[in-house]
Design brief:
Rossmann fold, 8 strands
């Protein structure tokens, strides 16, 4: 897959591309940055562990063809920073609940990717009446702590890492499930992820170690779609399928050739699955 030069430039200057569509929304002592594009039924997209809402721009553009897409940044990434740093996934989930209330949304579709999927799940099991539809990608109900994730957290906590080191940045290829199909997309992912402070990344990795919603999945009421890339090595497809099987009536879809960031590299495919969910398509357990 090759990325057109114009679109690649748009990613790199997303500040300009979204000028006039960004605002700060405050609730209590916390404020978050919000961006809206498109028209139609609302979808609020919850960002991953790093990269913020700007990492989601390719996905947002695909979804915005038929929906009002609402992107937001976590409290740790607002400018200027406000409120206390989040300590648990549930802190971000409460922020999501407050944001939906401030925006006056009535049972929107909530789409969480990776770490954002954990936030979306936490939110959905605690506030099932606030969710119209739930879409999850790269998540499970209880994350498996591995030696690699533990080492990554310790390194991020203790050693300042250069953002322009080719050797270090090769590890981001894991998000693609191997060698990236597009050099432009690979650069985009690296640049956006390093925009998040590495201390914040380490703290979020630590949060996942205690994340657990398996015993509350029965509370979910809304139509649910779990999307997994066939090449996802961060949260393998079989574990994401197990999540879908644990949710009554949930639908599972496998996106061939996609890795953990399949919501970016295969954003058109992802948007098609989301649209099918919106239309009430028949369940699948591919």
């Amino acid at each position: 897959m090759r990325i057109a030069t114009k679109r690649r430039v748009d990613w790199l200057i997303s500040d300009e591309a979204y000028k006039g569509r960004r605002r700060l929304v405050r609730f209590g002592e916390t404020q978050v940055e919000v961006v809206e594009i498109g028209r139609g039924e609302p979808i609020i997209v919850v960002p991953g562990l790093a990269g913020g809402w700007k990492l989601l721009t390719p996905l947002a553009r695909s979804l915005a063809k038929r929906h009002r897409v609402i992107l937001f940044g976590f409290r740790d990434e607002a400018h200027p920073l406000s409120g206390r740093p989040a300590e648990q996934v549930s802190d971000y989930a409460r922020d999501l609940s407050s944001l939906i209330g401030e925006l006056g949304l009535e049972r929107p579709t909530v789409f969480g990717v990776s770490f954002g999927g954990a936030v979306a799940l936490e939110f959905a099991v605690d506030h099932p009446h606030l969710v119209g539809r739930l879409v999850l990608s790269g998540v499970e109900s209880r994350f498996h702590t591995t030696l690699a994730s533990t080492i990554a957290r310790r390194v991020l906590e203790r050693f300042p890492l250069p953002s322009d080191n080719p050797f270090v940045n090769q590890f981001f290829n894991l998000f693609h499930g191997g060698r990236p199909d597009s050099a432009a997309m690979a650069r985009f992912v690296v640049e956006r992820c390093w925009a998040t402070d590495q201390g914040v990344m380490a703290r979020r990795l630590a949060m996942l170690e205690s994340f657990y919603v398996s015993d509350r999945l029965w509370r979910l009421e809304s139509p649910t779609l779990v999307l997994s890339g066939s090449r996802d090595v961060v949260v393998p497809a079989d574990r994401q399928k197990a999540l879908a099987l644990s949710i009554a009536g949930a639908r599972f879809e496998l996106i061939e050739g996609a890795g953990h960031v399949g919501f970016l590299t295969h954003s058109s495919d992802v948007a098609q699955h989301v649209e099918r969910l919106s239309r009430g398509g028949r369940p699948s357990m591919a």
